[in-house]
Amino acid sequence: MKARKRPKLPPVSEQMKAWSAALTAEIAGWPRVSARSFFGFNALYRGEQMFAALPRTRAMHTPNSLVFKLVHAAAPLQMRLQADTRVGSMEMKKARWYTFELDSDADLHDALDWIKRSYDAAKTANPQKKAR
User: Fold this and answer.
1) Does 2 score more than 90 pLDDT?
2) Is the separation of the CB atoms in 11 and 57 below 8 Å?
3) Is 98 among the domain residues?
4) What confidence score (pLDDT) does residue 124 get?
5) Domain extent for 98
6) Which residue in 48, 50, 83, 112 is a FRET match for 123, CA 20 to 30 A apart?
7) Is residue 3 part of a domain?
8) 100 by DSSP, 3-state: which?
9) CATH no. for residue 31?
10) Cα-Cα-Cα-Cα dihedral sign, residues 64, 119, 78, 83
11) Are 115 and 23 in contact (CB under 8 A)?
């Protein structure tokens, strides 16, 4: 059996550390949000649903990228995702995750917008739990 290759996680840039701290501070005030340390990231949860990960010491693809999850993006949103050159995608554990590349302080507004969409989608996601 062949072992799965783990993705390389590049060290995060100093600028991205500052951007991540600013985004984390903003998002921490949203209802039902919690953050947990996760492989060099701050994993952001709405209740029990992870919706984004902001780099602390490691990034997903590049030193200035963050990730967010959109499980069921409607066609217009899919078109926006594809049109935004700062957005990439990947599939992990059968969920669609997107990367967002920041180049300047001006990108923080759009990063926050994508994370907010992910947060809103986590509200509607309702994983089935087995009754005990």
Assistant:
1) no
2) yes
3) yes
4) 67
5) 14-123
6) 83
7) no
8) strand
9) 3.90.1150.30
10) negative
11) yes
